[in-house]
Amino acid sequence: MSRQKKIQLENGTILFLGAAAFILLAASLFPSSAMSQKVRSYLEMNRMVERAFAVMLLVLSTQLMKRKRTAWEMTMAVLTLSLLRGLEEIIHTGLEARSLFLLVQAAVFFILLWSRKDFCCPASKKSVEQAVGFILLSLLGVAVNAAITRHYINLALGKGTVSFVESLAAGVGMLFGIGGEFPGGEFAEHLEQLMFLFSWGCILAGAVHIFRPWMEYPGKTASDLQHARTLLNLYSQNPCSYLTLEDDKILYFGKQVDGVIPYGIVGDTVVVNGDPVCKDEDFPKLLDEFKEFCLKSAHKLFILSVTDHYLDEYKKQGFGTVKCGEEARFKLADYEISGKKGAKMRMNINHAKKAGIDVYEYKILEKRNAALEVEFNRITDEWLEGKKSSMLKFTMGTLGLDDPMDRRYFYAVDESGSMVAYIVFVPFLGKNGYMADMTRHGKKAPGGVMELIMYEAFQVFKEEGVEYASLGVAPLAGLKEENASLMEKLLEFVYEHLNQCYGFKDLYRAKEKYSPTVWEPSYYAYLPKIPSPDMFYAVVKIQNPQGILDFFQTVKFPKFWDHGQKKQETEAKKDHE
Known about the structure:
By secondary structure, the protein is of the alpha+beta class. The protein is built from 19 helices and twelve strands. It has two domains: 3-210, no CATH class; 327-526, Aminopeptidase (3-Layer(aba) Sandwich), CATH 3.40.630. Helix 1 (3-29) runs antiparallel to helix 3, helix 3 packs parallel to helix 8 (185-210) and helix 12 (343-354) crosses helix 14 (449-463). The N and C termini lie far apart (90 Å). The relative contact order is 0.08.
């Protein structure tokens, strides 16, 4: 059988299993139907167990589609138990209807057994440990139920008439809806139901955890970082690519071609910052190789801040793409602040100069200055004190004074010689461009100081023959297009209505005031082509480990009593007039 036909057979079997689970779930929701009566009479389950078992099968079928080994093992265990139970009943009853049902189960069992090597995606070790914890909790629920069973039956029938083993068997029967009623009254019945829900909840939670895929986390050596740095200085066309060298990135090096991809993992989503870095002619192979690397481990893929340089290749390889913002880019040969367009920039620069601000470059590779580095850290601390949410990671660099590599440091001092602000630049386009990665100011920084540092740094770059500078991407800016896709409309809605959570518009205006010579489009690229909500959650989580709620700390919700007070004040003002 060809590989393609084998995969089709596997998928058909998995879909059949999912359909059977759906039918079982539907039957449990309509207990009076003939279908429900037949299902329950065969499986000997009550409705609660039917639903729990159906949900379990649905989860298994979705995970089997991702070729997860743990899902295969659990499915084979369930089918084995069901087949043994069915054979036993056929031997004793010989019912033909059940024989047909047994044959279908056997077919599913042997197809999955035959294709066992294809289910090769292992589970995460940490997830397995968490799953075991939930399973143990479910067993605790069974034990508690056994104790309750023993207690009330002993009370009803006489002390010592029921052993703990018999009670434990009754507890397991409770888990699968098997067994009759026992004396104990309404209180005992409620306790049994509570233990039932607790046990099945733990089992399902354990299943969710154990299905989390495993991916190898290769360590980074000094030679790996140097190799990545060399690739960046040779081939990086994306301004954010230099962040590949930050400690929060895992590095994937190409096996067939020489290239590097920086990524992180949240749940079962791999998040990449910027385009893969390699020769242009090697990009299709490197992207395809990394895509297969993610798919084989059942991970989804989300690439941030993609430029239009390789956009067609992403689409060709089946990625979904959507514009996610615009990058403020400067062609230094054409950049000037004269005329009406640069009036605000000139005004801010003049304000900083009148305040006695001077700008210098800290050439750290030539000679380190411990006192100056203390000032850099002080400015960072003062800047953090003014933030209401956590500092972003993954898409933002670090100060990196202990290992500066190719970073450039420009800082401003006041008349007393005290540092008031700094900007850290990182290279792209083989050091033919520099991006402002970190912009920090202290409490005593006068207006216009960041504009002055930026302008002076641009002049230095221009004198060195550097062609481009960048302020990075303004997220979700410039999305208003006539033929916008549903995804673009969703991102535009976030840009327009969720500015209290994250200052999208403020960030765009902050970059716009520097008068970029061009706004370059930036994109998201993702696989599967239709992204799921957990993929967007991964994008947020990897940048802010505190999660989405951290952004809502800055939201000021309207106070209805304030609104009423303002209304009274307005009416009083009208009466006064």
